[in-house]
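Before any further analysis, backbone shapes were mapped to integers, which produced the following:

***
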Amino acid sequence: MKDIDYIIWLNSIHGIGLATIERFIKYFGSLDNLWKAPANEIYDFPNITKKVADKLIETRRIEYINKYKERLLSNKVKCIIKSDILYPERLKNIEKPPRILYVKGNIIQEDCNAIAIIGSRRCTSYGKNIAYRFAKEMAGYGITIISGMAYGIDSAAHRGALDGGGRTIAVLGCGVDICYPKNNVNLMKKIIENGAVISEYSLGTQPRPGNFPTRNRIIAGLSKGVLVVEAGLKSGTLITIDYALQQGKDVFAIPGNINCSVSKGTNKLIKEGAKPVTCVEDILEEYNIRKQSWDYDTKFNDLSDSERTVIEVIKRKQPIHIDMISSILHLAPSTVNSLITILEIKDLVEQLPGKIIILK
């Protein structure tokens, strides 16, 4: 049998995770030895339950593995193990890399140029817009966006990457044949078409709470750096940051309202050394990615001089309060309000709650 067959077999059994597989290798010398071991040796394996030992012995058949492979094929799922050329190189270098990845979609070489965008499920509309915009802009630079497909910031980041014509990868805390959360089924389909949905968990694995902190090491591991948009002080997002720091990854954070609970975690990260970012260029400069010139393409052809001036200010300072635009340009608030309304009609800017303006 091939190495991948042993891993597929073991990984399909509930109660056997990465740590147990490593212990099997150390105890038996190889997975081939485990496959051939007498039943009494398996029952004697330290700290194994009878239920798991019974399942190991029951499933130790070529027919079982072949049937599981048929299930993978019918679900259009590929399996990648660490020795596979398609296994992400960056992921090999983390502590406890997954021995197997289940993939729906495709992982390509260009995905090594990736940034994770993460944050709170219960985010503000401001945070959701920022995640979407940053992902969309970075997608334009060929950067793959990594996230976890959860509600809130994760989903906004995936959608931004897709709308920007880029690639995105979702790392799940369940099997790739399960859509979690269920309402993201259409988003999941689009991610598969323009990137990949991946997991280290076997088919049918339910989204148990304990799976998500573990999968966060993969989100960090696939990425050059991690951008936190919004996170509370006790957010699970901060677990991903812990992994990122352990892995020596860059950590970026969006400064937030000091009175907002979902900004307390991000503001704390900045105080502890995360790089504060207010525009995509703050991230691009870390990797010497050439800054695009702001040229007025076809959608800016019909702008008046005043409208162009407002656009330039928003681009440099966004997100920016409408009163700040008035102050910078020395224009009456009523004049700026009128210009913003025109730019909204032209679908070039968006006004967020609290009269905060961003480019679309």
